[in-house]
Amino acid sequence: MIPAAFEYYRPKDMEGVLAVLTEHGDDARVLAGGHSLIPMMKLRMAEVPHLIDLQDVAGLGGISVSNGTVRLGAMVTQSDIIADAVLADAAPIMREASLQIADPQVRYMGTVGGNVANGDPGNDMPGLMQCLDAVFTLIGPDGEREVAARDFYESAYMTAREDDEVLTAVSFKVPEGGYAYQKQKRKIGDYATAAAAVQIVKEGGTCARASIAMTNLSDTPVYSEAAGAALVGTSVTDSDIDAAVQAMLGDIDPAEDNRGPVEFKRHAAAVILRRAIARAWSRA
Amino acid sequence: MSKKMHIQLTVNGEAQEFLAEPRELLIHTLRERLNITGPHIGCETSHCGACTVTLNGKSVKSCTVFVAQADGAEITTIEGLGNPDKLHVLQEAFKEHHGLQCGFCTPGMITRASKLLEENPSPTEEEVRFGMAGNICRCTGYQNIVKSILAAAAEMSASKEAAE
């Protein structure tokens, strides 16, 4: 319950953030909504001698949809996502997923940037971002760079972000077609036993494009290119969905924990993906 | 020990100023420093919501906010919603509909419910249950909490209509 002492910084701009990160390296961390980091600090699983609060840093908020691209500032909260009508129209899967993350209080504080940068395979946004083929913007001492969500995750808590970089935004093309974020969990606020993000484009009764990613079924989110490919050109019958599920099962690598043994997780993943594809197809 | 910070808060309309270590959790500030002991601590993993307060218009779990982050903030706790002589509509409804037993979750429940009804003045039962899902109760089984909140919502819209 009691976190260790730290020095606290609340800079007004990114230069101020980067100055602390550069000076203290791995001893400094940014604080966004605080709803993964503070719990870890309270359990003394995270040691952060220098904590940089991003709440006053200009330019990290805002949701925009323009020129066919959705952009969310890293400090956009889950409740901002749920409340934004323009976003709900452009990318309804965002709202569907956010409503399955945590609980109301956590959603007022927890941010999209924190969710995707955290690196915990339990987080829901990383798989969703891979499904949407999102791009993450990172800023560091040498300037800005972009990393595809599909290339960002290396292993549990290990990402392509360097210690002296800050994730400032996520962006993706306005998705087309039907969508579903389907999540199996033990209760409200739990990380997924299995979850699937699906976007499907239907043209003349046939699947023209499909994108599928799975949550909490490996030490990273899993973008299953093979599962999407299995649906393309089909009319998404039960046997086509079975083929996609089989392809997905080849890509996941769940670990046993108190959500269940590996066999059960593979079973749950199959059930969840079947439901997600059926729902996305019905909306396509 | 780290350097103490000069902190300013407005809690239930009253200005507060003090020096604190940045790592002090807002729930401890309220309880230990300001003697506002309605908000409670039921866990150390940010699940239970017994510490829920309204911070700058948001329902937050004050166990998951450092006092440093709250510097300059406006906070409402259960003590700011009503008092024994003049109960808030929700407090009256929880009493009337047996929405509490031990009372430990109640301050967080009512503070959260006040924000929920502000955002959604006429929720369905399902919306109440989903909107209160960040608050755990060990005694009531939730049924009477839902009844209390729905009753308070009806009461609040009735008195709003009467005023118009």
TrEMBL record, chain A:
SUPFAM superfamilies: CO dehydrogenase flavoprotein C-terminal domain-like (SSF55447), FAD-binding/transporter-associated domain-like (SSF56176). Its EC number is 1.2.99.2. Keywords: FAD, Flavoprotein, Oxidoreductase. Residues 1-177 form the FAD-binding PCMH-type domain. Pfam families: CO_deh_flav_C, FAD_binding_5. Signal peptide: none annotated. SMART domains: CO_deh_flav_C. It comes from the Bacteria. InterPro entries: CO_DH_flav_C, CO_DH_flav_C_dom_sf, Diverse_Substr_Oxidored, FAD-bd_PCMH, FAD-bd_PCMH-like_sf, FAD-bd_PCMH_sub1, FAD-bd_PCMH_sub2, Mopterin_DH_FAD-bd. This is Carbon monoxide dehydrogenase medium chain.
